[in-house]
Structure formats: structure tokens, C-alpha cells
Design goal:
The complex is a heterodimer of chains A (432) and B (564). Chain A is α+β, with helices and mostly antiparallel strands and 432 residues long. Helix content of chain A is 39%, strand content 30%. The chains are: A alpha+beta (432), B mainly alpha (564). Chain B: Keywords: Cell cycle, Cell division, Coiled coil, Membrane, Septation, Transmembrane, Transmembrane helix.
Chain lengths: 432, 564
């Protein structure tokens, strides 16, 4: 098996941590295994408990490993939209080779040149996404490698994130015994698979309703224009149910998953369920219709907040409409309610890959596809994420015992180019 | 003979013995009376009477002094010497063995001594009383004078707070001043007992004046300041309540307020005339009246809050009862077509309908009174409570009637419950199907779902038929139950088989790049999976995985087991 083409993506969410192992073959992704674990270390998308997060990551990774029989070494880590800024960048270099053929080295240099911008000390560059390359004034070039030219320019978008949040995220991954092969902005990655090229070009809003937060990403002219995070999500619905039915949050979450319906008009009065009441030994029986009376107002609020945020960002009408994704949109009635509230074209994006045909996997699948694209254009080395299970276990233990040693070993490893160089810089900032 | 002589001798001896004993007894009594007479003679009555000489011997004192002296002289000179004579006479009677007469003499002498002793005691007591009166008068008149001075001082100091009563009090104090003069005159004249009476009267009057002077300012403040202010506040409160939409008994309240004001005026007049007790009593009545008015207004406010708080729930209860009555009626009519309802139950239902008609009228009247402010809220509250109670009673009757109808329709209700349960199962199955996100739902399963739904509709239609044929209904429901069960089983098998197929393909994906054959097989299996041919997809891919990674098949089966 050509391990080079195997990628592992890690989505650390507020309610769930997901790992997907996938192999790229003939430009299509085959999912090899999936790992999923409950997340207890995050609140509203931000890490609040490193140990709990590490435990969740390890649990999800172990599940994925058990499923596919490989030991996972390196992961592509998704960064959610919290405290993320996008800023345009421009880099110009002279083609270095004597025969004026543009090579990977030239692309690395032009990307490095595009990063030479002033950023605040508390922020860190997560990624530089090329929007177009310009060779000797000829623009709209997506892959200039092999072309002949003298002057190579790149227009791109620099993605920066809060250093603290990024540090905490990477720290968790490191402590879980994993190596970070790449960092990807989840909204950008999800947009790659959730919205079509035409939609991204005409303008589309991707709404990812997660457990603790809802991320709104607007794509237009083929590129990500804005990312906003709204501090409401599926957990708010569970809390509402917990308060409304006077039951524990765990029971409320269970009821939401099993019987939840987001559209009162379509909810059934025939479907009933019993739940224990806090502070007594008795159980109360409710119907799905009653449950929908709790869920719908909160979901409606989320969609209204999305609509208001769109207006605030200056988008009154996007031809592509809204694309919903995330675990919460799996709830029956969510799409109908969204159409009712947003009053524009709305659809749910569901990955079509075997084993992950659910909106909650949009981010993880997107991360793999996005990373694979980066490999192609930027020449990054993010593959070869797995090893035979028996060989990997001691290595993981060693990594868990000393994160610093791992970082230093990674530096000595000699991969000084591309992402390796950037990762080294990030860890130098954090650990020195 | 000797016996007779002996007996006579014995009698003589007995007589002599008795005579001796009697004489001894009487002598002893005579000695006692002699001692007593001597004691009386030697009592210091003269000295006691002599103490009066220290007082002014004139008028009443002189008269008394003379009387006591004469009395004492009479005792010493006549009464007690006559007792001495009596004692001699008793001695002589004893010597002549006239014991009975002697005894009578002793008794008479004893009585004389008792009278004499009583007279002496009276004299001593009167003397002491006279002397003590004089002494007590001196002390009490000093206290009364001080109290008088204090009263005059207080009167001057608090003249304004006493209002018009001050001048009457002043007159009263002037009248008391004359009593002091009279007292002095009586004392000068030696009329100590009369002087004593004056002192006592003075003390009582001064006490009364002092009490009046203490009470009147307080009562005046209440009469002229506190209560008028409270009444003004009350009037203001009434006005505010009227403007806030309270329908009050205005005329009654106005009369009460006017009465209270008149009473206050009367109390002021009584206080001017120093009828303090009567004024205080009337003031208490006025306060009670004001409190009652306040209570009345508070009750109005509370009643309004109650009415406004309860009206929606009573409205809701009324509407519920309205629906319940209509439902019951409809149910009764329906049940009548298929069952025989007992006469007693029919009467109860008629009674409930009648009670509802009555309460509906009462409710309309209440609504009219409430909306157009035709009645005070306390009255509305009572009305609302009555309506509430009647609605509860009707509801209870309806509940009972329903129970009776349900007991008649036991089989039918069980059939309805079963139908509802089957519908619930069908709905849950539809939702499960949606959650499984199958790439394609097999046509057979869709048909089964549709058929189950149709069978349930058919049973429901049979349940609506009149007259009801429970045999037909039960058969339709049994068929629906088995249809739903078949569909549920099929759904469970399909879902698990789809999951199995998906996981097997996923597990095999890692071998996809190993050979072209594997890749093609997996592509075929995936196509089958996407077309809803899950069994075929499993059959296709399972041998592939069993050959390459048998433990993965076990993992897949575990996962599928968890799903089911």
C-alpha cells in the first residue's frame, strides 16, 4: 500500500472529536476508517480542558486505528473559525532556474514572499491559500509549475489565528502522541466539498451548526471571503430541553438525538418518550410535538442570527444560497425550518463517501481533500500518516512522555521545507 | 333497810359532792368576771380620749370628745360597779345552793361586760380614727396641693394642645381651689372627718383632671390631625381606585365618610366638654369604621387581582367544559347507536348539560359585569369562585360519564389504543429510516410501509362506522399489527445489512489500490450499495475482506450489532 496517499484528519469539536483515515486514489477519496469520541474539553469551540481534550483525541484515534488496523502517526488538524482572520497577500519573486522554468522551489519562495506582512504579535499564520498565480503579467493561473517565465506573482489569502488558541490545539494533539502534518481552516476545507465550484464562484454561505458554535463562511468569486462564529449550537438545544423537561443534560442530548424534530408543523404527536425528572424517581412522558416546541425556537434563533450576520457582513442576497452542514442539521425538520426562516435556497451538504455519509463528517472529509490539494499545488508533504499498528504503539508512548523531545526530534528530522518549516517556527514560538 | 339507808347516804354524799363541785365552778367564773371587770376598769381609755385634746376641740371634735367622756364616765361609774354588785349577789346565791340563779347571774354579768368592752373598743377606735384622719389629712392635703400646682402648671404649658377644653379645665381647677379653702375651714373648725372627705374628693378630682389633661391632647391629635389625614388619604385612594377602573359603592362610601367626619366633629365637641371617656369610645368606633373602609378597599384590590389572575384560567376551564360537554354529547350520540346507555347515566348527562347551560348564563353575566364595570370586584370574585366550583363539578360529572361510556366501549377503546400504538411504531420506523440515511430505500420496504399505513387507515375507518362491528375492527387491527411488525423487522434487517455493506466496503478500501480486481469488485459492491442492493453488496465484498483481514469482519459485525 502506498502510504504516501493516506491522510488522517482530526476535527476537534465541542461535542465530538472525529478522526477520519482516508486514501486518495485516482483523485478520489476512499475512507478507510472513522473514529469518534465524545468531547468534554471544549466550550463554544475553544479548549478549556487540555487533559479532557487529549483523552478525547486518543479515544477517537484508537477507535479509528482499531477499525483500519494502522497506527496513526500524523494528522491534519482542523482549526475552527474562532478568532480567525483572513487577510489578502501578494508575493513576487524572480524565477530562479536558469532555463526560466517555474519549479516547486519558486512556488515555495513566492508563498514565503506573500507571508512577509505585518501581523500582530498575538497572532500566528495558519495557512496561506493561493488564489491565483501571475506569470509575467498573465493571471488566473492555478498551477504555474512547468511554465516558463521571469516574474512569478501570487495573490492569496493569509489565514491567521489566535496564538493562544492555536497553541492549545496543537498542544492537545502533541500530548495525544500525534504529529501535526498540516493545519487546515475547517470552514475553507468544508467549503471545498460542501459547495460546488460554481456556488463558490457565484456566492454561497456555508453554515456549520456544531455542538457549541455555528460557523458561517461566505464564499464568493471562488474564494473564502468571511468567517464568523456564532456562539450557539446543538448544546444550547440540549440545555433548553434539559431545562424545559427538568431532566439531566445527558438525557436531554439522548432525547434530542432519538426523537428531536426541528419543525413543529411536521413533528408527530404519536411519538412519545419517557425521561427521568431531576430530583425525583419518577419519569415524565412527552411527545415529539412537545419536544419540537423547545427545539424549533432555538433553531429558529440560530438561523435568524445567521441571517442577521449575513446582513452585517454585507451579503443581502447570495445566488448560491445557504449550504447547511454539521451534526445538528441531521435533525429532522432542520432543513424545512431553515428554508422557512432564511427564505432563500437552502440545502444540506452530505459527504457521499462510503462510511461517512453524514453532514457531521463534512469538516474531516474537507480537511483531507484540502490537504491533498495543497500537496499538489504547494508541494507539501502531509501524507504517509499511518504505520503498521504494532510498530507505532511504542512510538506514541514515547511521544506522550515528552512533547519537547518529539518537537526537537522533528526538527532534527531534516524536513526543513514547506509545512515542516512552518510547524517548526510555530513550535519554536510556543515552546522556547 | 340498810340498803335504803345506804342509798340515802349515797344520795346525800352525791348531792354534797355535786354542790361542792358546782360552787367551785361558779366561784371560778365569778373570779374570771372579777378579773375581766378589773381589766376593763384599768384600760387607758381616759388617756386615749385625752389625746384628742391635742386637736382643736371645737365643732365635731368637741362633740365627739364630750360624748366619749360621758360614755366612759357612765361605764366607770355605773355599769362596771353594777357588775360588782351582781358578783356579790351570785356569791350569796351559791352559798344558798341556788346554782341555777347564780348561773343566770353570771351570764347577765358577762353580757354587761361584753357591752362595756364593745363600747370601750368603739371609743378607742373612733379616737384613733379621728387622730389618724387629722394626720392623714395633713399628708394628703400636701400631696393634693402639689398635684394641684402641677395640674395648673401643666394646664398653662399645654393650654394650646388642650384646645377649648383648657378653659373648662381651668374652671374646674378654680373650683378645686375653693375645696382647699373649705378643707382649711373644716380643719380649723375641728371637723376632721368632713375635712377628710374633702381631701378624698380633691384627690379624686385632681386625678380625673390630670387624666383628662393627659388624654385630651392625644385624643385631640387623633381627632383633628390623624384621622382627618387618614380620611383624606382614604378619599384620595377611593378617587385613584375609581380612576383605575374600580367600580366602587360610591354612595355608600361617601355616606360612611360623611358619617365619620360628623362623628369627629362630635368627638371634638365632647372633648371640649371634658366627656373624655365618651369621646374615646366614639373615637375607637370611628377608627374601626375607617379601618373597615380601608379593608373594604383592600378587599376590592385583592378581589381585582384575583379576578384578573383567575379569569383566564376560568375562561380556559369554561372552554374546556364547553368542549367536554360537546364531546360528551357527540360521544353519547355515537355510543347510543351501538350500545345501550343506562337510564341513570343518561340522566346524569342531561343534568351536566343543564348545569353547563346555567353556568354559561352565569359566565355571560359575569363577563358583562366585568367588561362594563357593572359590579364591584369583591362581588365579581364571589361570582367567579362560584363559576369555578360549578365548572369543577360539571367536569367531575363529565369525567364520570366518560368513564361509564368508556366502560361500555372497552373493546373499542382498546382497539383505538392499539391503533395509536401501531401508528406510533410506523412513525418511529419512518424516522429511523430517515436517520439511517440509506443511499436508497428498497422498494419492498417502501411498499410495506405504505401497506402498513393503509391497513391502519382501514382499521380507523372501520372504527368510525356506525353501528360498530368490533369483530371487523379487531381483524383489521390484527392485520395492521402484523403488517407493522413485518415492516419493522424488514427495516431492522435492511438497516443492519446496509450498515454491514458500508462498513465492509470501507474496511476493504485499504486493499483497493492493491489490485485492479479488488478495485473493480469494490466498485461493483459500492454500486450495489448505492442502488439499495445491500444483501448483494455484502455477498460481494465479505469474501474479499475475509481473505485479506478476517478480524475486520468481526469488527464490522460488532459495529452492526451495536446498531441493532
Amino acid at each position: 500500500m502506498a502510504n504516501k496517499e493516506i491522510y488522517v484528519s482530526l476535527d476537534i469539536g465541542t461535542s465530538c472529536i472525529r478522526v477520519v483515515v482516508g486514501e486518495m486514489a485516482n483523485q478520489s477519496l476512499n475512507v478507510l476508517s472513522v473514529g469518534e469520541a465524545a468531547s468534554y474539553g471544549l466550550k463554544k469551540g475553544a479548549i478549556v480542558d487540555i487533559d479532557a481534550t487529549v483523552k478525547g483525541i486518543q479515544s477517537a484515534v484508537e477507535q479509528a486505528e482499531r477499525s483500519c488496523g494502522f497506527a496513526i502517526e500524523r494528522v491534519i488538524v482542523g482549526v475552527n473559525g474562532h478568532h480567525v482572520d483572513l487577510q489578502p497577500s501578494h508575493g513576487v519573486v524572480a524565477v530562479s532556474s536558469e532555463n526560466r522554468e517555474i519549479t516547486n522551489e519558486d512556488i515555495d519562495r513566492v508563498i514565503d514572499a506573500a507571508q512577509v506582512v505585518s501581523i500582530p504579535p498575538e497572532r500566528e499564520i495558519v495557512d496561506v491559500v493561493p488564489n491565483q498565480f501571475v506569470v509575467d503579467g498573465l493571471d488566473e493561473i492555478t498551477d504555474p509549475r512547468g511554465m516558463i517565465g521571469v516574474r512569478l506573482e501570487m495573490d492569496g489569502t493569509i489565514i491567521t489565528a489566535s496564538k493562544t488558541l492555536l497553541h492549545n490545539l496543537l498542544r492537545c494533539v502533541e500530548r495525544a502522541g500525534l504529529e501535526v502534518s498540516d493545519i487546515g481552516l475547517q470552514p475553507l476545507a468544508a467549503g471545498m466539498i460542501a459547495a460546488s465550484k460554481d456556488e463558490r464562484s457565484l456566492g454561497v454561505a456555508l453554515v456549520d451548526i456544531g455542538g457549541g458554535a455555528t460557523t458561517l463562511s461566505v464564499f464568493k468569486h471562488g474564494r473564502l471571503q468571511n468567517v464568523s462564529v456564532l456562539p450557539v449550537g446543538g448544546e444550547n438545544i440540549s440545555n433548553d430541553i434539559s431545562v424545559g423537561f427538568r431532566t439531566s443534560t445527558e438525557e436531554a442530548e439522548k432525547v434530542k438525538r432519538e426523537h428531536g424534530h426541528a419543525f413543529i408543523d411536521d413533528a408527530s404527536d404519536d411519538v412519545s418518550f419517557s425521561i427521568p425528572v431531576i430530583g425525583s424517581d419518577s419519569e415524565e412522558t412527552y411527545t415529539q410535538y412537545e419536544l419540537a416546541h423547545i427545539i424549533e425556537p432555538r433553531m429558529e434563533e440560530i438561523f435568524e442570527m445567521v441571517a442577521e450576520e449575513m446582513v452585517r457582513l454585507g451579503y443581502n442576497d447570495l445566488p448560491g444560497g445557504f449550504v447547511l452542514t454539521g451534526g445538528t442539521v441531521m435533525m429532522p425538520g432542520a432543513l424545512e425550518l431553515a428554508r422557512d426562516v432564511l427564505n432563500i435556497g437552502v440545502r444540506v451538504a452530505v459527504p457521499d463517501h462510503i462510511g461517512v455519509r453524514s453532514p457531521q463528517y463534512t469538516n474531516t472529509i474537507g480537511l483531507i481533500e484540502f490537504a491533498h490539494r495543497n500537496v499538489k499545488i504547494q508541494g507539501k508533504d502531509v501524507g504517509a500518516a499511518v504505520a503498521p499498528l504494532e510498530e507505532e504503539a511504542p512510538h506514541r508512548k514515547q511521544q506522550q512522555s515528552s512533547t519537547e523531545e518529539t518537537a526537537s526530534a522533528s526538527e532534527k528530522g531534516g524536513n526543513e521545507k514547506g509545512l515542516g518549516k512552518r510547524m517548526k517556527n510555530i513550535f519554536r514560538v510556543f515552546f522556547e | 333497810m340498810w340498803y335504803i339507808i345506804g342509798a340515802v347516804a349515797a344520795l346525800v354524799l352525791l348531792f354534797l359532792g355535786y354542790s361542792y363541785w358546782m360552787r367551785k365552778q361558779i366561784y371560778r367564773e365569778v373570779d374570771r368576771l372579777g378579773r375581766r371587770k378589773s381589766e376593763l376598769m384599768h384600760r387607758p381609755v381616759a388617756e386615749e380620749i385625752g389625746k384628742v385634746k391635742g386637736l382643736t376641740i371645737s365643732g365635731e371634735t368637741e362633740e365627739k370628745f364630750e360624748r366619749w367622756r360621758r360614755e366612759w364616765d357612765r361605764l366607770v361609774e355605773e355599769e362596771l360597779p353594777s357588775v360588782e354588785d351582781d358578783l356579790f349577789e351570785i356569791d350569796e346565791l351559791v352559798n344558798r345552793y341556788r346554782f341555777n340563779k347564780a348561773k343566770a347571774g353570771i351570764q347577765e354579768a358577762d353580757e354587761k361586760l361584753d357591752r362595756a368592752e364593745q363600747t370601750i373598743d368603739e371609743i378607742v377606735k373612733d379616737v384613733q380614727e379621728l387622730i389618724e384622719s387629722e394626720e392623714k389629712n395633713r399628708v394628703d392635703i400636701d400631696e393634693a396641693a402639689a398635684s394641684y400646682e402641677e395640674a395648673v402648671k401643666v394646664l398653662h404649658e399645654h393650654r394650646r394642645s388642650l384646645g377649648r377644653a383648657a378653659s373648662i379645665l381651668e374652671r374646674q381647677l378654680r373650683g378645686l381651689k375653693n375645696d382647699f379653702i373649705t378643707y382649711d375651714e373644716e380643719t380649723e373648725a375641728g371637723n376632721y372627718i368632713q375635712a377628710r372627705e374633702i381631701v378624698i374628693r380633691l384627690q379624686e378630682q385632681l386625678k380625673l383632671v390630670r387624666w383628662q389633661m393627659e388624654e385630651i391632647p392625644k385624643l385631640l391629635v387623633e381627632t383633628e390631625v390623624d384621622l382627618p389625614r387618614e380620611i383624606n388619604e382614604l378619599v384620595r385612594g377611593i378617587e385613584e381606585m375609581k380612576s383605575a377602573g374600580y367600580p366602587l359603592k360610591e354612595e355608600e362610601l361617601d355616606n360612611k365618610i360623611q358619617n365619620v367626619r360628623n362623628e369627629l366633629h362630635e368627638i371634638g365637641r365632647l372633648l371640649e366638654q371634658l366627656h373624655v371617656e365618651e369621646a374615646a369610645y366614639k373615637l375607637t368606633e370611628v377608627k374601626t369604621s375607617v379601618d373597615e373602609m380601608y379593608t373594604e378597599l383592600e378587599e376590592e384590590a385583592e378581589a381585582r387581582a384575583f379576578v384578573e389572575q383567575q379569569i383566564s384560567s376560568v375562561q380556559e376551564a369554561f372552554e374546556n367544559v364547553q368542549h367536554s360537554v360537546a364531546d360528551l354529547k357527540a360521544e353519547k350520540e355515537k355510543v347510543e347507536q351501538s350500545y345501550r346507555i343506562p337510564e341513570e347515566e343518561l340522566e346524569r348527562q342531561n343534568s351536566s348539560e343543564h348545569a353547563y347551560t346555567e353556568v354559561a348564563k352565569q359566565w355571560r353575566v359575569f363577563e358583562d359585569q366585568y367588561e362594563h364595570q357593572k359590579r364591584v370586584f369583591s362581588g365579581l370574585k364571589t361570582e367567579l369562585e362560584q363559576v369555578q366550583k360549578r365548572l369543577n363539578d360539571i367536569e367531575a360529572d363529565i369525567y364520570h360519564s366518560r368513564e361509564v361510556l368508556h366502560s361500555l366501549r372497552k373493546d373499542e377503546i382498546e382497539a383505538v389504543a392499539s391503533l395509536k400504538e401501531q401508528r406510533r411504531k410506523l412513525k418511529l420506523a419512518q424516522q429511523k429510516l430517515q436517520k439511517h440515511t440509506l443511499p436508497k430505500v428498497p422498494g419492498v420496504l417502501i411498499n410495506e410501509m405504505n401497506e402498513a399505513g393503509e391497513q391502519l387507515d382501514k382499521a380507523a375507518r372501520y372504527l368510525e362506522e356506525v353501528p360498530l362491528e368490533m369483530g371487523k375492527v379487531n381483524a383489521a387491527i390484527r392485520e395492521a399489527e402484523s403488517q407493522v411488525e413485518r415492516m419493522e423487522n424488514h427495516l431492522a434487517i435492511t438497516a443492519s445489512q446496509a450498515r454491514r455493506a458500508e462498513l465492509l466496503i470501507q474496511q476493504c478500501n485499504q486493499f483497493r489500490t492493491q489490485s485492479q480486481t479488488v478495485n473493480e469488485t469494490l466498485n461493483e459492491a459500492e454500486a450495489m450499495f448505492r442502488e439499495g442492493r445491500y444483501d448483494e453488496a455484502v455477498q460481494k465484498v465479505r469474501p474479499l475482506l475475509e481473505r485479506r483481514r478476517p478480524q475486520a469482519v468481526e469488527y464490522v459485525e460488532e459495529e452492526v450489532k451495536q446498531l441493532t
